[in-house]
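Comment thread on ticket #2218

A.B. wrote:
> Attaching the input chain for the structure job we discussed in standup.
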Amino acid sequence: MRTPLLACGLVVALGCSRDSTPPPPTATTGGSSAVGAAPAPAATAKAAGALEVGKPAPDFTTTAHDGAMISPSALKGRPIVLYFYPRDETPGCTKQACAFRDAWKDFEPTKVVLVGVSTDTNESHKKFAERRSLPFHLVSDPEGAIADAYGVPNNGGFFARQTIVIGADGNVKKIYRSVDVSRHAAEVLADVKS
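C.D. wrote:
> Ran it. Output below, let me know if you need it in another format.
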């Protein structure tokens, strides 16, 4: 069982403070495009850092905390924002989620599908979403398959804070490898609207 002090220390080390820089990607093996599925060639070919703006976003299929099925290929025609974060209910992660929540009235007209991704369980996500009144999806990626496909580092079960914006055409539109939670919602909104 993690102690709160240990969890907070790891979270800060992985980018929960707005001034920190995420660690560099590490090589991983056995990535998968679908959570819980056997490795797929398209996913394993996406080594950390291989994600490119203008190229198709890696596909996956999973169920969010609210029961919604999330799959980039099935959502083609709508913009998608995948934001990876270390842990539910930590200070930086809560600030980021609440900033997206507070800007939701501006996001809604764009028909964006906003998805937060961490290694937390869907039960943890349900509590987090309920406590913070989050109007978007949270996805559990316990093995790091989705993070791996998008080149997001996973250090000891804590994802680096990074965001991928996928255009309605299914191609990667913007990659944020460094995130300042105090202004990130506005930056992403501008990307989705452009």
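A.B. wrote:
> Thanks. Noting for the ticket: The chain is about 30% helix and 15% strand.
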